[in-house]
Amino acid sequence: MRIRVKPGDRVMDRRAWLMGIFGLFSIPRVSDAQPAAKIYRIGLLGGSSPTDPGGRVWEAFFQGLRELGYVEGQNLLVEGRWYGEQPDRLPSLAADLVRAKVEVIVAGTAPSPEAAERATSTIPIVMASHPDPVGSGLAVSLAKPGKNVTGLSTLSPELVGKQPQLLKEVVPAISSAAVLWNPTVPSQRLSLKEASGAARSLGMQLQFVEARAPADIAKAFPVMMKARAGGVVVLGGSMFFSERSQIAKLAARSRLPAIYSVREFVEAGGLLAYGASIRESWRRAATYVDKILKGSKPSDLPIEQPTKFEMAINLMAARALELTVPPSVLVQAEQIIQ
Questions:
Q1: Smallest Cα–Cα separation from 177: which of 255, 231, 253, 256?
Q2: CATH fourth-level superfamily of 40-154+278-300
Q3: Is the pLDDT of residue 8 over 90?
Q4: Which CATH fold topology does 156-275+309-337 show?
């Protein structure tokens, strides 16, 4: 190859020129010097997607991931599977996530963790909020789960025992109450036991009313009215959470004072709520995902229990029911809707 040199051009030493040419090939490219960051694949399993009103708690989970440096589309791929109004689809949806070879399955509240645990004994499973992981067989103990499932427990059974007491404080004349529950969620049976014990100590009779699907909820309230219930305790669960606006409206229309397990029901128009913060639980679930992706075994990660409980009261709902919330209850509330 001949190089023409014009007058005034700087003549380069041949040796320097050759070193420069070969040097171009010896300089490491950015892709060689800095290996691409690993992209993790996680699966989400629950009743509602993050874009649905019932799935807004997933926002707290993604917030927790962002705080830990995980961003969807950059170093994180997300596979979501949602059963909506068909919990019978859970086994096939969980199996689908297993086939997708996700590295972690994040299951919402019951019965999603149970379905995930039946689908795999090897892929780590993180519960975002579960009322009774030990009683349901998901873990050997809270301190040492011993299986491929870990995460957050909401302690709902114990909290349910306090709910009839709070309902009695707000409605002193109440002598009977209904409990709205979902038989497809096995852990709720323990909640029924706790509620029964609390009601007996208060001299209150309970009637258990089932709702297996959203369509059953509207049918449940006439049953409560016919039984002359003076109030209602609504148990937790993804289906009830997704239908919280409908439940709050039906309770108001039936003029039934109701207590719920999470404040989101009160924000939807319900009267009273007492329980752990599910937003905080779902945000904390991200820390479990982070630990597992970094090598920790779920069997060795203790299941967290909530240390803070919150009460919410909707005074507009109280006025509509012609109830006066006593100061002893108001002073306990973290959130009061005027």
A1: 231
A2: Response regulator (3.40.50.2300)
A3: no
A4: Rossmann fold (3.40.50)
